[in-house]
Write a structure and sequence with these properties.
The protein has 2 domains: 143 residues, no CATH class; 97 residues. The chain is 53% helix and 12% strand. It is built from 10 helices and 5 strands. It has a 5-stranded mixed beta sheet with strand order 1-5-4-3-2, sandwiched between helices. The radius of gyration is 19 Å and the shape is globular. The protein starts with a helix and ends with a helix.
Amino acid sequence: MDMRAEVWSPLQNTACWLGAWLWGHESTDALVDALTALGGVQYAGDGAAFAEMLRTLRAHTRGLIDAREREPIMNLILSGPGEAPALAAGSSSAQAARHSAEGVLMVRTDSPETPLCLVPVRTKVKGVDATLWKVIVESSPQTLSTPLSPGDADAALTAATDESASLIEALGYSTDPLPNPRLTVGTLADFYDTPGLPASIPGRAAQLFARTDGVAAIIETVTERVGDHSLDPQLFRLWRHIRHARMAGVAYAMSEFAR
């Protein structure tokens, strides 16, 4: 099992950068640099230059941007064990999300009947890390479930973490095979934040992402670095709350970018 794939979401930061760029808060150069740091050289799915995908996004969302609508222009869709992606069953986007290790981005467009689904495919091109973006044009509207508010997502993650900690304490767990476990957790939390978020990210979203990164780092430290899987039931139950917090943070950021 790839633990990092369950608790880390480079697509979260990608969504924030794309949203900030669409709303004019970040330059194209800054966007491309950040996405390159996240997933290597960027390409449109058909092998075209990444600029072609950016032009497509700009053309299909221009009316929403001009109207400064507060409804999120882009949603991060994550799924995991026991939780299907929150997309219309049978749609091309739902099928793509089920087969994507990272999730997908759903983009509202000027035509509600034809939303866009962006699917990242991590690969190598001529031996260099790269991301190929598949763009799906849906033929019908996608009714997305409303993400939690940042406050509700934070509260749910905190409560679940506290409950898991209590269960672990009740088991009498105690081990310290790492020279400095706190340093390991801190180092991993820093990794999850790389290459960081756009300067225009709202504070509440950034704080929520930092909390999810911290919980993710703890899970990876115990299961991967320490190699102790006796606590898996208590730790794995946090995955769902991590996913929901990341989706909530992205939705909130998109709304705030419109201000």
